[in-house]
Amino acid sequence: MVTIRKGFVWGIIILLILSFAIPAFGEGEAAKAEKPAHYGFLSLLPPVLAIGLAMITKEVLSSLVIGIAAGALTLTGGNIIEAFKKAMELLINTAGDPSWNFRVLLFTVLLGAIIGMVSRANGPQAFGRWAEKHIKSRSISLFITWCLGVLIFMDDYFNCMTVGTALRPVTDRFKVSRAKLSFIIDSTAAPVCTLVPVSTWVAYVASLMVPLFEQYKLNLNPYTVYVQMIPYDFYPWLIVLMVLVTSFTNLEYGPMAVSERRALSGKGLWDTNIMKNPPGDEFASLEKSEKGSAIDMVGPLLGLIVIMLFAMAYSGGFFEGKAGFFTAVMNSDSATSLVWGATITVILSAIFYSVRGVVRLKDSMEAVIQGAKSMMVALFILSLAWTIGKTCQELGTGVYVSSIMSETFPTWAVPVTVFLISAFIAFSTGTSWGTWAIMIPIVIPLVVAMKIDILPCIAAVLSGGVFGDHCSPISDTTIMSSTGGACPHIEHVNTQLPYALTAAITSAVGFLMLGFFDHPFVVWFITIALFFVVVYIMHKVWTGESPVKPQKALPADQEK
């Protein structure tokens, strides 16, 4: 509590100082005369404050608010009243964006409704009993979670919210910490989306490359470039591999080892000092049906996956004969498809439970409301995270970082430098797509001018962007992974960050080697080997007691 108060006090003090200091830099007048490309070092204040205070106070909402306020003060030249108006305008316009953000918020509410209905039908408990009979080891439960995350590759948001809901009863049974579950969810969301060349992410990256290829007269197919780039995309490969390494070995380290040890010792699946009931885990008081079975959980979630695929194919023109199935999925309006799929699933699930006599229609509607309420924290954090991202965009945070780090450098340093710049921007802003929108138009002209291979440079941009999207405290997928895994957000960030940094540092070495050796598969294997060595060393350096993982399911009455 003392730490939290100190963090908030320092945040308020910083904002007061900014309100007096910013006019001295003349930023406000410059903004009124002609909007600058960036606001110098002040462009870094919102993400630095938000991330720093979140780590210190372990409280995300207030930290994001202070970061947004700092950005608004910068944009308005330190005028407190104008800053308040600017911050509210950014929040309303960003969270209310009808083309994407509002639809994601609506999907999150609808998915909460589905989870509420599944819980009311007693599906998770029934599925847990089934899993106890068929899944006999902790490692296999983690592997199945990993597999489901890899299989749901078409959209990262859908992945984050579905995997945790489906596998949480199983991982709870084997006393897997919620931090570990959230890490697996997060590591198989954005990273996998970039490694599988059939997703909305591929279409987005291709759309960024097409006009640049035309402008610089590059006779290249953007989709072909993307596929050929995949072996160079080190960070997603390594972080996905990290899940398998820590699932089948005892090589945990850092805060994750602490969380795992606490869970295995029966002291709690999450850190109750941070949150008593984390988002997505608020159905303890909900009345449960006595007629529920495993199908009452598997049915709605499997239906959601199938309906989602067909909704994406429909929005991409498959049923109109405009494209093949996978092409239509790749070119779909994924945000709209998420809402369509979730809405249809809510309706069909209510009918399914009613026909089977498991839950009455009236009770299903009550569960829908309870489920929607459980997502409120996630909705607030998502809205504020998007707002601070928009604030950084107006401040030119990405432009400033790239301008100070992309000075003249030798050819061999281009891939690793591009990776480091992209990683810093993505971590600071919490967005991979935004980072790519900034960096790809910078990197392709640079590649043309320096006459170097485009593949490792594009891969470096994508890897850096995925790093930030994967582990930044203000990333929307990080937030949704916390919610999907029912883990306090700060615990999820703190526990997965050492693993993410391990993969990022090893990736940087790989990109550095690409500057000297034009043999991607040789560099790939060397990087993988180095990664295993680093993980082993980190495990040995970590002085805490390593968690001892049981091989069999523990009794249900000891789950928490």
From TrEMBL:
Major location (coarse): membrane
Key word Membrane present: yes
Keyword Chaperone on entry: no
Sorted UniProt keywords: Cell membrane, Membrane, Transmembrane, Transmembrane helix
Any Pfam family hit: Na_H_antiporter
InterPro entries (UniProt xref): Na/H_Antiport_NhaC-like_C
Cellular component GO terms, alphabetical: plasma membrane
Domain Na+/H+ antiporter NhaC-like C-terminal: start-end pairs: 192-516
Residues spanning the membrane: 7-25, 37-56, 63-81, 101-119, 234-253, 298-317, 337-355, 367-389, 409-427, 439-462, 497-514, 521-539
Identification of the protein by name: Na+/H+ antiporter NhaC family protein
Organism from which the protein derives: Biomaibacter acetigenes
